[in-house]
Design a protein that fits this description.
By secondary structure, the chain is α+β, with helices and mostly antiparallel strands. The chain has one domain. It contains twelve helices and ten strands.
């Protein structure tokens, strides 16, 4: 099944009834669907976990003809049987967040400050296995755009992202204080690499990308102790992730996949970023707030932005977090020292996912690897191609080497990696 054939198969999962239900949820029961059309807008290489597309809808309401568009996430139709359980679990988690948790979190925030989370609204979900579908607000109509994932976020973009994460984290604590059962679902408390009990598919992908980092560093030379450290991490991934979900005073509902491709930004007339929207909650889980901070700062910022501005960025997060907690009458407040110390304590998360995402972040969209055929081997082969492309970028992409090495140089300086 080539890319076009797979896309058509995914399109077949979008039914008129699902579009009607989304329209009613958005515009009310009086809205009458007139016509709808699928409009693809994502690029090759964007659709590993789900096919993301959109529908343009015409409808009648109160005697007027109107238009609206929605973004749709559909089962990716990879036809890799061993990944079906993982795909289903990912959709279940995201649907649970959008349909159950997000409305409760928004009510908490509205009561406290009159605002809601920086996330799209969800109008429909269907969780039938191999036919999963989620229909969301199309933020493009409000002027939100994707940031070029190959560029590191500058300070202004990073501050907006951190404020959005802080609101999510604080709102989840406020919800936990009022309705602790809301966050007890097992799917929110499973570690990375174990999305589905008994499945090791996600863990094996992480292990393979760490091997790729070892190959890169051996080719560069001079990072022998870092290579040994990475090999140690690989052998301890299950333990690292199991320890990660053990409750602590800093546990919140984290985004879990907070890199710049899972965010949209809205800009002023002079191109200043003014607002952020956080997308793709399929990896959300209850862990330390510092997981999201490490994930964002080591996947989406270059070293020359991250290192000199770290104190400012962490303070931006802390101020926003405390403001939401105070407005909502919550108990926890964070001081500068504990934010910094918790961030450092979770640097290993930043290291792991910095290594995992580097190839995906920097690859030219025209050269992105796509899963183009059916079957187990072809799905796994796509990830092998990503590894190969990452090695090629070491020689051909001037962004690759400094961005990759800056992360390790920081960890050596901070003592996470032995010097």
């Amino acid at each position: 099944m080539n890319y076009c054939e797979r896309t058509r198969t995914c399109h077949s999962l979008i039914t008129e009834e699902s579009v009607k239900e989304a329209l009613r949820a958005d515009k009310g029961n009086e809205a009458q669907l007139t016509s709808w059309e699928i409009k693809d807008f994502t690029r090759k290489g964007d659709n590993y976990v789900a096919l993301v597309t959109s529908v343009e809808v015409e409808f009648a309401l109160n005697g007027e003809e109107k238009k609206v568009s929605y973004v749709i996430k559909a089962n990716p139709c990879h036809d890799a049987k061993s990944y079906e359980d993982v795909t289903h679990a990912i959709f279940l988690k995201e649907a649970h967040f959008y349909t159950n948790l997000l409305p409760q979190l928004n009510l908490i925030l509205q009561a406290a400050s009159g605002k809601i989370l920086d996330m799209p609204l969800c109008y429909y979900s269907r969780m039938e296995r191999n036919k999963e579908l989620i229909i969301l607000e199309d933020l493009r109509s409000r002027g939100f755009k994707m940031f070029d994932r190959r560029k590191g976020l500058d300070v202004d973009h990073a501050k907006l992202a951190l404020k959005g994460l802080a609101k999510l984290h604080a709102a989840s604590l406020l919800l936990q204080e009022k309705k602790p059962e809301s966050l007890e679902a097992k799917l929110l408390n499973r570690p990375w690499g174990n999305l589905v009990e008994g499945s090791t598919n996600v863990l094996s992908i992480l292990e393979n990308t760490l091997d790729n980092s070892v190959t890169i560093l051996n080719r560069i030379g001079g990072y022998e102790t870092t290579v040994s450290w990475i090999k140690g991490i690989k052998g301890n991934l299950p333990k690292i992730f199991e320890n990660d979900v053990k409750p602590s005073k800093y546990h919140v509902l984290c985004h879990g996949d907070a890199w710049n491709n899972n965010m949209l930004f809205r800009y002023s007339e002079d191109a200043t970023p003014e607002e952020v929207m956080l997308l793709d909650l399929q990896a959300c889980r209850r862990v330390s707030f510092a997981n999201d901070l490490n994930f964002l700062l080591y996947t989406s910022l270059t070293g020359d932005i991250r290192k000199p501005n770290l104190e400012t960025l962490l303070e931006t997060y802390r101020v926003q977090f405390n403001a939401v907690m105070e407005a909502g009458g919550g108990d926890l407040r964070l001081d500068k020292t504990e934010v910094f110390e918790e961030f450092r304590r979770k640097n290993i998360i930043g290291a792991i996912f910095g290594m995992v995402t580097i190839g995906v972040v920097l690859v030219d969209p025209q050269e992105a690897i796509e899963v183009t055929a059916s079957g187990e081997g072809n799905f796994d082969q796509a990830f092998e191609e990503v590894k190969k492309k990452t090695l090629e970028m070491l020689e051909t992409n001037p962004l690759m080497r400094p961005r990759f090495l800056a992360m390790f140089d920081e960890f050596i300086e901070n003592g996470l990696i032995p010097s």
